[in-house]
């Protein structure tokens, strides 16, 4: 007998709850310190229910890191590399990214764990590397556009893009405030200056 729409919604919500609980636990207690029992308790579901959605802890960890990349990509890449006014596009991009990164502290902690032990998690690292390469490529194209139009100083676009992505992650991991606040807004001007805006 097929599942009802309500049953499917309940299953979708349970899976989401498991992933949210797992992300927080993996971020705070690491892979070794996180157990399926702890995840089930944090998600407020039975121990056995976790295995309805995930084969084992390895699959749960992989999913917690890789699955959010799709939605993250949609938001992070939502800027035009060929904007008519690259300076305005740059400002909007940076504000959007800062607001987004301000809210994903636990997830970024997971990313740093994988990068720091990339030999241990080669498949996950490959997905993160693909995302990062695309991110830097798109930012560098915006830089090239701004340079072509005489709005940004001439410097290596990929280097600028790499410094920018590093800044985003670094600020988030070094800031205890989990909200987007005035404190975050103070960093926007410094981030813009990375791109070498030419004042006219």
TrEMBL record:
Alphabetized UniProt keyword annotations: DNA-binding
Entry-linked PROSITE patterns: HTH_TETR_1 (PS01081), HTH_TETR_2 (PS50977)
UniProt DNA-binding region: 35-54
Pfam families recorded: TetR_N (PF00440)
Location of the HTH tetR-type domain: 12-72
UniProt key word DNA-binding: yes
Entries under InterPro entries matching the protein: DNA-bd_HTH_TetR-type_CS (IPR023772), Homeodomain-like_sf (IPR009057), HTH-type_TetR-like_transc_reg (IPR050109), HTH_TetR (IPR001647), Tet_transcr_reg_TetR-rel_C_sf (IPR036271)
PANTHER family in alphabetical order: HTH-TYPE TRANSCRIPTIONAL REGULATOR PKSA, HTH-TYPE TRANSCRIPTIONAL REGULATOR RUTR
Name of protein: AcrR family transcriptional regulator
Species assigned in the record: Metabacillus niabensis
